[in-house]
Amino acid sequence: METDLPLTGLRILVVDDNDDSCCYITAVLELEGASVKAVPSAALALEILPHFNPDALICDIAMPGEDGYTFIRKVRLLSANEGGQVPAVALTAYADSEDRVHALEAGFQRHIAKPVEPSELVEIIANLVTFSKC
After folding, report:
1. What was the pLDDT predicted at 95?
2. Domain Response regulatory: where (predicted)?
3. What is the pTM of this model?
């Protein structure tokens, strides 16, 4: 196993109802050494979050049932042991400045517009996890 990959050893939870997006994000992150769990809904993500214990979370905003804003607010109400302090990225087609502000106010640390370049996504995740461990 390569140990010089930027995401080696990291566990990342991806929440996106779009299968193509999940597959793309998962492939990009796994190629860089991450262990990825992708789920199609906020409800399922909340259920597995405490058990998967991710180092980072990537979440779409526009999802049926419960959007990413509501989801991250619920995550932030959890204890640290339950995953409430996991670094989180909103990866979304909602890309204007108001959407960015809304995402950060809801509890995400970063807001990234879709589509994202693989190298940019990897760099953002690596930096976010590194910064959160300081």
Report:
1. 83
2. 11-129
3. 0.94
Q: How far apart are CA 57 and CA 42, in angstroms?
A: 12
Radius of gyration of the chain (CA): 13
Q: Which CATH class is domain 11-132?
A: alpha beta
User: Any idea how long the chain is?
Assistant: 134
Q: DSSP characters for 15-55?
A: E-S-HHHHHHHHHHHHHTT-EEEEES-HHHHHHHHHHH--S
DSSP 89: E
Instruction: Look at residue 134 in the predicted model and tell me its pLDDT.
Output: 62
Q: Rounded mean pLDDT of 21-40?
A: 96
**Distance (Å, rounded) from C-alpha 44 to C-alpha 38?**
10
Buried b (16+ CB within 10 A) or exposed e, 11-25: bbbbbbeeeebbebb
Give domain limits for the chain: 11-132
pLDDT digits (tens, 9 = 90+) for 52-67: 999 999 999 999 999 9
